[in-house]
Amino acid sequence: MKPARAGLGRLALLAALVAGMLAAWRWRGLFDPAGLTAAIGGEPLAPLAFTALHIAGSLFFVPRTLLALGAGLVFGMWWGLLWAALGSVAGAAAGFLVARYLGAGFVARAQPERLRALAIRAEKGGWRMVAVLRLVPVIPHSVTNYALGLTPVRLGPYVVGSLAGQLPLTIAYVDLGAAGGRALAGSAAWQHEVLWPSLIGLSALLLSLLVPALARRRWRTAEPMPGA
């Protein structure tokens, strides 16, 4: 009876995820920076509403770059960075736990040796492996959440690695969103309030591209030669 209930629970959760993805596509304008500003800008509960939207966006494959830009536009640089970082970590944890529940024992039951080897490598890498994966901008946020939820990586290292790996891109896009907000507001001191924040954001974006390449190079040099 218990396995049947667990199967029904997983099926219901999967159906809810599919319905949520369709709803996120239908009302995708809500996740747009301008849509976020119109929906929650100036509201007393805006931080809570933004965090909830970020968690939903992470579960339903909404690009977190849109939400980070929106955070900068709605809250400004420093508060936007706080709420965007909190929302991205909360969303990452939600996707991880959902995948772990839906695919409980998936890797252990999987037959291909390569898949098991990758899972073991991810577990041994801990938070550092998670952080490097987060730093690769071509891998969608939601895909990484669900994929790592199927590995034996523990929740604590996963959260730490997610925070560390997501922070450079979060800084970059929140900063750019805040700079865009100041530009739209017609600030006179644009050199200090728009230009320099934009340069900081672009530097953080460049760092997120450079670190994974250096990490892959280090791993290749550290791997033992065949027959050694």
**In terms of per-residue confidence, which ranges show pLDDT below 50 for 5 or more consecutive residues?**
188-194
Described by the principal axes of the CA atoms, the overall outline is globular
Query: Mind summarizing the main beta sheet?
Result: none
Secondary structure tally: strands: 0
Descriptive overview:
The protein is mainly alpha-helical and 228 residues long. It has one domain (2-221). Helix content is 81%, strand content 0%. The chain is built from ten helices and no strands. Helix 2 crosses helix 4 and helix 5 packs antiparallel against helix 9. The longest helix is centred in the last third of the chain and has 33 residues, at 190-222. It is globular. Mean pLDDT is 78; it is low at 188-194.
Summarize this entry quickly:
The protein has helices at 2-26, 33-40, 46-59, 64-75, 77-102, 106-109, 113-135, 141-149, 155-184, 190-222. The chain is an all-alpha fold and 228 residues long.
Attribute tags:
single chain; 228 residues; mainly alpha; 81% helix
Map the helices and strands:
Blueprint: H1 2-26, H2 33-40, H3 46-59, H4 64-75, H5 77-102, H6 106-109, H7 113-135, H8 141-149, H9 155-184, H10 190-222
